[in-house]
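task queued by scheduler; priority normal; single chain, no ligands, no partner chains; default sampling; output format set to C-alpha cells
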Amino acid sequence: MSEVIIINNGLLFDGTQQKASVRHIQIADGIIQRISNTPIPNPGGARMVDAAGKWITPGFIDIHTHYDAEVEVMPELPESLRHGVTTIFMGSCSLSAALGSPEDVTDMFTRVEAIPYDSLLPLMKEKKSWNTLREYRDHFEQLPLGVNVASYIGYSAVRSHVMGFEASLTRQKPTDEQMTEILRLIQEGIDLGYLGLSINTNFWDKVGGNRYRSHLLPSSYASWGELFQCIRLVARNNSSLQCIPNISTKYEVFVYLALSMIRKLRISLVSLMDIRSNRSIYRVLPLLSRMANAIRGKFRYQALPELFDVWSDGIDLVVFEEFGAGSRALDYEDEVEERKKLINSSKYRKWFKRQWRNPLLPKVFHRNFALATVVDCPDKTLIGKNFAEIAKQKGKSTEDAFLDLVSQYDKSIRWRTEVGNDRLKPLQRIVSSDQVLLGFSDAGAHLRNMAHYNFPLRMLKLVQDSHNAGAPIMSMEKAVWRLTKELADWHGIQAGHIYEGARA
C-alpha cells in the first residue's frame, strides 16, 4: 500500500517566484500527486497535516558543504535537515572521499577543513569500502540518508589517486598516460551523475597528518595547462566547475571570469563578502562578473546571507594560514611544547609582527586584535575583553599580548571575531545581486570555528526584516526561489520546485 500524506491549508511558495497562496497538497510514495485550491479530504489511511499559519516551500539547497566524512557517521545530517535543507553538495574545494586511501583522504581533509585527524583517520579506515567513483556513488544507495546528496569530483582526490600522493604534492607534471587517466576519471564521474569538477588554487589550504604536513593540496600544484585540459572537458559536457582561487591576492578571479566564457561552462567561485579588510571588494567583483556574463559568461559568486563570524581556540584558525608566520604556528597544531618554543622566540615574534602589520601583504582577515574578543579562558578576568584592551592592561603590543596568551593557554583560550558581512546595507546588496548564488555554509567542516547551517533561514529573516522596516529588498517569493529553484536550475538538478509530478 502506498504511503499518502495530505497537507492542507499551507501558504505555498512553489520555488518559481509565483505569488504565494494557500494551497493543499497530496503526496503519495514521495511524489506530489495533486495541488488543490480546496482542502483535500482523507481518502482513508492518509497522514493528515494541517499547515494553517505555516509555509510550504521546496527543501532548501546547500551548494557548499564538506559533509564527506560526517555523512558516514550521521547519514541523516540532522543539523542541516532541521534547518530545512534537503539537498546538499559535497566534494567541494577539490576535496573528496571518493578516491584515495584512508590516509590520503584524511591528510587532505584534516587541516584545511579543521576536522580532527584522530577522529577522521579511524573513520575512513572503518567506512571506506569503495575505490572507484562508481563504487562511491553506489555506496550512498546503502546509507539511510536524511537529505539528498550530490557531489563534485574533487581534483585533489583525482590528481593524488592517479599520480600517487607524494608525486601529486609537487609541481611535477602528470605523464601523458597519467593525464589521460585523469581526464578519463573526470569524464566517468560526469557520466555517473557527479555535479562537475571542483578545483582549488588557494595557497592557504594545506595537507595535514604526519607524512606531508604543510604541503599545499594536490590541486594547487597543478599547472594552468593541466587544469585547462580538465576545464575544457567539463565545458564539453555542459557541466559545472566549482573553484576556490587564491583568495588573498584575488588575481585569479580574472582567470575564472575568462574561463566562464567558454561555451557551456558554468563556474561558481568562493566567495563574495563584505570583508572588513577590504570594504570595496563586494562592489568591484560583481561589476567584473557582470561584464563577463554580458558577453557569454556563466559565472556566479557563492555568498552567505548572514554575518560571517568565527571562533578560534588559540591560534588554530584557518585565517592564520594566509601569512607565513601564522601558517608556521599551525604546523605545530598537536605539538604544544614545540609551538610554545616557536611562539616565545624573539625571531618568530619579529616575523609575526612584520607580517601582521604589513599593509601591502594581501589579506582577507582584518588582522586587528581590537576586533577579537575573548569568550573563554582559564583566567576568567579576560573574558569579554578584546586583545587590544588586554595588551593595554599588560603594557605590551597587541601581537605580544596575543602570542603570550597562546603560549600560556594554547587551545584553552577561545575568542571570537567578525570577518565580514557585518553591515546591513552591503549585505542586502550582496544577497540581492544576480551575480551570486546563495550558499557557502562549509557544513561539516571547521566544527570549532564557524556554523552556518541555518543560512536559508537567516536569508528569509533578512528579507522579512526589510519588509518590516518598510524597505523590502525583494519579495519573499524571490527569497525562497534564491534558496531553491535558482540553485537547482543553475546546477542542473531536479529539486527546488513544487509541482504535480515532482519528487516531494
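post-processing summary
- The chain is about 40% helix and 15% strand.
- The CA atoms of residues 374 and 384 lie 5 Å apart.
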